[in-house]
């Protein structure tokens, strides 16, 4: 069993963490990516390790707020109108999940894995030198006086789940972040949360550890999947590889491959953006999220990263200048004295309409596993998802209920 050959498609945080946990169990692992490792969503995210973030976006209150959010150029949501028609089935499924029962189901099963996220990363970080790349100053969320019922709901759900949270008043927010302009009404602080000062560098440290222990990486675009008897066969433009088992970990691009496996998994993308204010990371001590606006600021090596918003528009549409403007104006509402921005980046969150990831075996092919769809939390959930898949493949008990993450829920 331990000598099985495993192919992983996708070298984002999910693929790399899967590779390391499988390697720890003695499997021969080959990682494929059409690009260098860590250049997609895992590159440009907000860098939050946020084990507290169980409250999902499929909520009754979000639905009623959507029209106002879409109308405002400063709001957290935007649409590419040419994609709306294509995304209608996803929207309908999403709406069906915006009730109390489904919201609590998602919250419960996000909490189950988020709660294990940091210890799982520590197992990987024990083997690499990440000094200077991770800070343990917590993560702060602040909000204005609008939509307070949504903030109350979020606090209540976290309390019900037993998530540790510290409600902070204006004075406490000021004491934590004195440079923040006093636009805020209240906030919540997670003192045990961490953040990455450079997500890509952390991913590369993990990837290099995988290679140094005998792992293989091939820079190839995997075009299709086939089977030789029961064994999965991966094909690039000019090469063909047979494995005992494969894992699809292509983030928002996974659907191109799962569609070939006769499984209609309704994966789509929530597009997100970032910009940097170079050399302005010293203004704050930790990531701060402006809840009403759906974005945040993170002190990083590249500068102050302003990151977030959700845009529905698929994988092909170009970057929207309006979303970049949204980030600049919102950041200037939080901090004084910001200079010209740099590095306009668009990335693709992989999102299922019930806001749970897909982690587990394929419906139709026993030697194919899925690990994608981690939406806003795929950075945080990299290590624990890899650990779960490695246990599934080595037929070990996880003591977790893994059914909620199965693709069978869409069958
Ligand atoms: C703006 C923004 C902010 C975010 N902030 C946070 C945060 O603070 N905390 C958090 O936990 N999460 C955050 N996320 C979410 C997180 O970044 C993603 O969920 C996570 O990075 C997804 O990782 P992944 O490995 O599944 O996909 P990716 O990182 O997208 O990697 C997929 C890889 O698959 C490769 N690939 C695709 N198709 C093929 C193919 N056919 N053949 C070969 N290779 C292929 C791609 O090249 C890519 O390298 C954020 C996301 C965005 C967009």
Summarize the structure.
The chain is α/β, with parallel strands linked by helices and 411 residues long. The chain has helices spanning 13-24, 41-44, 60-71, 81-96, 100-114, 117-125, 148-161, 170-176, 199-212, 255-258, 321-334, 382-393, and strands at 5-9, 28-33, 48-49, 77-79, 134-135, 139-143, 166-168, 186-190, 194-196, 216-219, 224-228, 231-235, 240-242, 245-248, 268-277, 288-290, 295-300, 303-312, 342-351, 358-361, 368-372.
Structure write-up:
32% of the residues lie in helices and 25% in strands. By secondary structure, the protein is an alpha/beta fold. It has a domain at 55-79 and 132-194 and 267-351: D-Amino Acid Oxidase, Chain A, domain 2 (2-Layer Sandwich), CATH 3.30.9. The strands form four sheets. Strands 4, 6, 7, 8, 15, 16, 17, 18 and 19 form a nine-stranded mixed beta sheet that branches. Strands 10-2-1-14-21-20 form a six-stranded mixed beta sheet, covered by helices on one side. It has a three-stranded antiparallel beta sheet with strand order 3-9-5, with no helix packed on it. It is globular, with a radius of gyration of 21 Å. It binds flavin-adenine dinucleotide. Flavin-adenine dinucleotide is lined by residues 9-15, 32-35, 39-42, 44-48, 50, 221-222, 249-253, 272, 274, 307-308, 347, 349-350, 372, 374-380.
């Amino acid at each position: 069993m331990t000598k099985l050959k495993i192919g992983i498609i996708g070298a984002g945080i999910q693929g790399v963490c899967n590779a390391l946990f499988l390697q720890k169990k003695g499997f021969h692992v080959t990682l494929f990516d059409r690009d260098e490792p860590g250049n997609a969503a895992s590159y440009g995210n907000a860098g939050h390790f946020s084990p507290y973030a169980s409250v999902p976006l499929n909520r009754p209150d979000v639905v009623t707020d959507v029209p106002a959010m879409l109308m405002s150029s400063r709001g957290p949501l935007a649409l590419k109108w040419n994609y709306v028609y294509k995304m209608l089935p996803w929207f309908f499924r999403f709406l069906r999940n915006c009730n109390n029962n489904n919201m609590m189901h998602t919250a419960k099963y996000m909490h189950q894995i988020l709660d294990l996220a940091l210890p799982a990363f520590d197992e990987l970080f024990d083997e690499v030198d990440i000094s200077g790349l991770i800070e343990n100053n917590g993560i702060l969320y602040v909000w204005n006086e609008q939509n307070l019922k949504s903030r109350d709901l979020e606090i209540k759900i976290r309390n019900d789940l037993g998530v540790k949270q510290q409600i902070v008043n204006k004075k406490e927010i000021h004491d934590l972040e004195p440079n923040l302009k006093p636009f805020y009404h209240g906030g919540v602080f997670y003192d045990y949360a961490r953040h990455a000062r450079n997500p890509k560098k952390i991913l590369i440290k993990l990837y290099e550890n995988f290679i140094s222990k005998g792992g293989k990486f091939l820079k190839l675009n995997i075009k299709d999947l086939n089977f030789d008897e029961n064994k999965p066969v991966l094909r690039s433009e000019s090469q063909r590889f047979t494995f005992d088992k494969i894992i699809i970990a292509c983030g928002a691009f996974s659907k191109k491959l799962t569609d070939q496996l006769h499984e209609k998994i309704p994966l789509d993308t929530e597009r997100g953006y970032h910009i940097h204010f170079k050399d302005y990371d010293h203004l704050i001590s930790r990531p701060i999220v402006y809840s009403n606006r759906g974005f945040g600021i993170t002190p990083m090596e590249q500068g102050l990263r302003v990151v977030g918003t959700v845009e529905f528009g698929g994988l092909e549409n170009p970057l929207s200048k309006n979303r970049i403007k949204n980030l600049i104006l919102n950041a200037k509402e939080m901090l004084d004295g910001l200079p010209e921005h740099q590095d306009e980046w668009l990335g693709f969150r992989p999102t299922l309409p019930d806001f749970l990831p897909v982690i587990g075996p394929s419906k139709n092919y026993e030697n194919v596993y899925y690990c994608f769809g981690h939406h806003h939390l795929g950075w945080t959930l990299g290590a624990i998802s890899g650990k779960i898949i490695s246990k599934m493949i080595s037929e070990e008990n996880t003591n977790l209920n893994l059914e909620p993450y199965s693709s069978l829920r869409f069958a």
